[in-house]
Specification:
Layout (H helix, E strand, L loop, with lengths): L1 H19 L4 H11 L13 H8 L10
Length: about 70
């Protein structure tokens, strides 16, 4: 939990710095949406379709525990 909280705080600080530099929140959100497009998946991340989809997106797939 501490690692997750630290990561969220770090990313929030990055957004805050961009806002303070004059960027609009909408611009920042559009940029973040584009940057994270490949890692978002609305399906069942535990199902057999996710590793196939992840490989299509060029993401690492841990097959050691499949």
């Amino acid at each position: 939990m501490a690692t997750i909280a630290a990561t969220v705080a770090n990313e929030t600080n990055k957004v805050k710095a961009r806002l303070e530099n004059g960027e609009s929140l909408e611009t920042i959100m559009v940029d973040l949406h584009a940057q994270t497009q490949n890692i978002r998946f609305d399906g069942n991340g535990y199902g057999p379709e996710w590793p196939v989809e992840a490989e299509k997106r060029g993401l690492y797939v841990n097959t050691k525990f499949s």
